[in-house]
Amino acid sequence: MLIRKSMRTFLFMACVLSALLMSSLHAMQVERSFPEGIKRGKLSTTALADLVIDGKLLHSSVALRIFDEENRIVMPASLYVKNAPVNYLLNEMGEVHRVWMLTEEEARRPLPKS
Fold it and tell me: Under a CB-based contact definition with an 8 Å cutoff, are residues 38 and 111 in contact?
């Protein structure tokens, strides 16, 4: 009986501790770093999941990765945006290789000098 009560207390404290840890980690915002050669533009998507940046239809690379404001990967087909500020990177073929959806603060910062 005493062991059961101790175990329940331990599990309850572990749950409380993990909840506190998760909330503090969520509150800490990690500043994202972007690679050299990035460009900035306004992204819009079409019904066919095409990428339109600054009014130009751009081809997507086979290895396209789109990161949302919280740095999670987003599938192009599930993304519908209109004039969203982004940083993007082109590959050697001129195809869009990486896209980072920007937070308001990131959009206000100037691009790093190459």
Answer: yes
